[in-house]
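job 3f2a | input accepted
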Amino acid sequence: MRRLIAVTALALGLIYGCAQGALWQFDRYQVRHANNELIRTNTTLTSIGESDLEKLPSTQIAWRTIALSGNFLPEKQILIRNRYHEGKYGFGVLTLFESTQGKKYWVDRGWVIAGKDAMTPPVVQPVTTETVEIKSYVRIENLESQIRGSVFDLPGKNASQLERWNKDQAVASEPFFFDLISSSNAAFTPAVPTALPELSDGPHLAYSFQWVLFIFLVIFAWYLVIREDRGNQSTKL
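job 3f2a | predicted structure (237 res):
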């Protein structure tokens, strides 16, 4: 009897854990699928202006194109490691942009190839402080962080990338950043713009089904133990 109680408790614990895993993976699938649909829809809509960033809800802003006038601040620039293009290692170039309304935004100016060695800096397209109009995709970090979320992450455990960028350059930016598409000064247009995300739902739905399969396997194993225990009891009688 003790063995049966212990096995039953273990089986129930495993079933509960597998159910939680299935639900979490299914939730990840739903979030990612919704984000992909958002990207598909919003990238086809007309451009918005800077004033729309405060007027429209985040789901109507994310991945929309925006036309913005202002100037780059070349002294506020960050190289983002581990960016690849066509299998080649390089960096993302992030430069602060100040709009004509006096607001500051981080602008991802695309990819540049790494130098020949760790001591050689990459060649970055220079920008000046002249007033230009840029066309970009709007990125909203708190919306996209749902896609990058992990079951092991704790709220507030890690600073957002915007917070890290601002801290690194001692600035305060708006809660949006942009992927640069083009500029009224063609010299500022990125040679390799940051690509749109791959619109794949990923393996989350398959993983969810795997967890459900594990539940059935646990139940089957539980059944086998119970059957064996009853068989042993019948033999004794």
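job 3f2a | The domain at 46-188 is CATH 2.40.50 (OB fold (Dihydrolipoamide Acetyltransferase, E2P)).
job 3f2a | closed
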